[in-house]
Amino acid sequence: MSTVLDGANRAIAIPPRVTRVFPAGPPAAIVLYTLAPDLLLGWPRANRPEEREFLLADIGARPELGRLTGRGNTANLEVVLSLRPDLILDVGTISDTYVSLADRVQNQTGIPYALLDGRFEATPRMYRTLGALVGRERKAEELASSCERTIATILDRISDIPDDQRPRVYYARGPRGLETGLGGSINVETIEFLKARNVAGGTRGGLATVSIEQVLAWAPDVIVTIDRDFATSVRSDPVWASVPAVRNGRVHLSPKLPFGWVDFPPSVNRFIGLWWLAKILYPERFPEDLRPITSEFYATFYHVSVSDEQIDRILAGRDA
């Protein structure tokens, strides 16, 4: 039995043939689906019909398993054992807490538990490690190389923009738009990766609730949101009317099918989102039509062909 070092430098003993993988949380499920969908036992949350439209039909419809990590962890070890996985996969934060969980579950179940680095910039390395873990090195290299090309192309185009000309961005979550990601939060990782100035970045942390008075004081140039209700209401809300982003029509609803392009969950779905963000933050540097880029991403990562009508619906943030 061979071993592979995971993201925490733990030696993971892998069976000669991996055919069944249990994802510990949503990021892991998405990563595994993009690389080796046939190995995915199920999803932490059952996919909705509008999400399954953009996934392989039989894989997208696989059952809800619950989750071992993150908010609202609902899976228990009896469920995991009953599914007889060859491997448990987690993709996310490499910290003592998650390493301890991986070790404990592995010791209690006897099932190898790999913890891979879920940071955006670590994605190419993560794919190569996962490819070695499940015996899909060729596809892993294809996906890793695609991610590297995206990063290199986009960063090269914005490398000479002075800091004072980079937009001030507020990331709005929730129907009132008052939940946001602080500096270093995985939820705003791609916004900060593009060197935009996260107005909430002065404080380090994760997600936080802020006041409308604070947003007014920040006066962001651009608002990015994942909440359709907020995106609709903020344009006519007098409380938000003085915010430069609202006044200048720079409130942008992130696409989310089958998975969010900026967040929710923070996984490899963010790579198509990086193109979308770059285009709204630096439109003069990214004149491309997003449709062919979207089509190629969905074919390569989600294994589906999408029509022009579907792409328009995705880009508009509509479910149907």
Description:
The structure is a single chain. The chain has 320 residues and is α/β, with parallel strands linked by helices. 39% of the residues lie in helices and 13% in strands. The protein contains 14 helices and eleven strands. The strands form four sheets. It has a four-stranded parallel sheet with strand order 8-6-10-11. α5 links the parallel β4 and β5. The longest helix is centred in the middle third of the chain and has 22 residues.
What structural category arises from helix and sheet content? Answer: alpha/beta
Strand order of the largest sheet: 8-6-10-11
**N-to-C CA distance:** 48 Å
Q: State mean pLDDT (0 to 100 scale).
A: 96
Low-pLDDT runs: none
**Continuous helix count:** 14
The fraction of residues assigned to DSSP E strands is 5-15%
Order of helices and strands: EEEHHHHEHEHHEEHEEHEHHEHHH
Summarize the biggest pleated sheet: 4 strands, parallel
Principal-axis shape equals globular
Query: Over all CA atoms, what is the radius of gyration?
Result: 20 Å
Helicity range: 25-40%
Tell me the total number of β-strands. Answer: 11
